[in-house]
Model the fold of this input.
Amino acid sequence: MDIIISNKSGIPIYEQIKEQFKSKIITNELKEGELLPSIRSLAKDLRCSVITTKNAYEELEKEGFVVTIPSKGIYVSKINKNIAREEQLNKIEDLLEQAINLAKINNIDKEEIINILNILYEEDL
Done:
C-alpha cells in the first residue's frame, strides 16, 4: 500500500492516512469491495501505532468510505464518487480562500500566488 506519512507536516498521522485512502478510493485506485490491509499490518508497514491506523479506519468508516466485516476485514464501500469529489473540492476551496486572505493581508499579489501554486503543484508530479 503506497501511503506516505510525514511527522513534520503538522497534520495528525491518522488524518494523513485517512485522506490518502479517500483519495485512492475517489480516483478508483482502490475499487469497491477491495480488501484493505489489516489495522496491524498497516501500522507495521507505516511504522506507526495500531491506535493511529485504527483511528484512520474508523474515520473512513464514519464517512462511508469503508465497511468493516467482522472476522473478514475492512473493505472499500460503494460510494457516490461525485459527492466524495465535491467534498474534496470544497476543502480545497476553503484552504485556497485562507491562503488568498493571508496573501491580501500581506500585500502579495495574485500573480505571485499563482506562481507559488504552479511550483508547488508541479513538485508533487
Notes: Helices lie at 13-26, 39-46, 50-62, 81-105, 110-123. The chain has a mean pLDDT of 91. Residues 25 and 108 are 36 Å apart (CA to CA).
